[in-house]
Design goal:
By secondary structure, this protein is mostly helical. It has one domain. It is 78% helix and 0% strand. The chain has nine helices and no strands. The protein has helices at residues 2-16, 22-44, 48-71, 81-103, 117-141, 143-148, 150-170, 174-177, 181-201. Helix 2 (22-44) packs antiparallel against helix 3 (48-71). The longest helix is centred in the middle third of the chain and has 25 residues, at 117-141. The chain is globular and about 50 Å long. The two termini are 25 Å apart. The relative contact order is 0.13.
Length: 207
């Protein structure tokens, strides 16, 4: 979360100064965050063959990103949707797979569903990436529509990003909140900080 705070804060500063921060968001969000999320799902995957497929597909997408940067979408000039799309689709698939395994009791069969952190994290990741792919995909096809409705569309985007970062912060704390008052206080403070980070700093991307 500290990494998110740093790059979102810098993104906010550059956006307010009218500086094109595409490089920041391409590197930090499209590449680094996507890779971290894929690694997260990879570590939770139990099927050895499927884990190999995750690595192979991820390397292929990174190769596509290199080709995209050289020939189609400059990494410094605009958001690389052609790279975000395959990364996002892979993350959506991995989110659905993890949720399916949890709901089918293949993972954590002895746990209450509401107390499984990975259930909440994968759910919010799923909804955020579906929304983000639709939003930025619409911008690729019909930029005028997005620009015309930028306030409402990016308010939804910020809300979804905020929920995702929020659950990143509290998913592992929530099951223990009612057991220890000190943990509860710490969790509430952390919740307040993460909420402000995600709502204020989420995606101040300058097109």
């Amino acid at each position: 979360m500290g990494w998110v705070l740093v790059f979102e804060s810098y993104g906010l500063i550059t956006a307010r100064q009218g500086i094109n921060n595409s490089l920041l968001y391409n590197v930090s969000w499209v590449y680094i965050e996507s890779t971290l999320l894929i690694t997260y799902f990879y570590l939770l995957e139990k099927n050895t063959l499927f884990k190999k497929r995750i690595i192979q597909i991820s390397l292929f997408i990174l190769s596509l990103g290199l080709v995209n940067s050289i020939f189609f979408q400059s990494i410094t000039h605009s958001l690389q949707y052609y790279t975000l799309l395959p990364f996002g689709l892979l993350i959506v698939i991995l989110s659905i797979r993890l949720l399916k395994n949890i709901l089918n009791l293949k993972l954590y069969p002895d746990h209450n569903l509401m107390e499984i952190p990975h259930f909440w994290i994968s759910s919010t990741v799923l909804f955020f990436y579906i929304e983000a792919l639709v939003l930025f995909g619409t911008y690729q096809l019909n930029p005028g529509f997005v620009v015309k409705n930028v306030n409402i569309l990016f308010s939804i985007n910020k809300l979804m990003a905020g929920l995702m970062y929020l659950f990143f912060g509290i998913a592992f704390i929530f099951p223990h909140l009612t057991k220890n008052l000190n943990i509860l206080k710490t969790g509430l403070v952390f919740l307040f900080i993460i909420t402000n980070i995600s709502v204020i700093f989420s995606f101040p991307l300058k097109f």
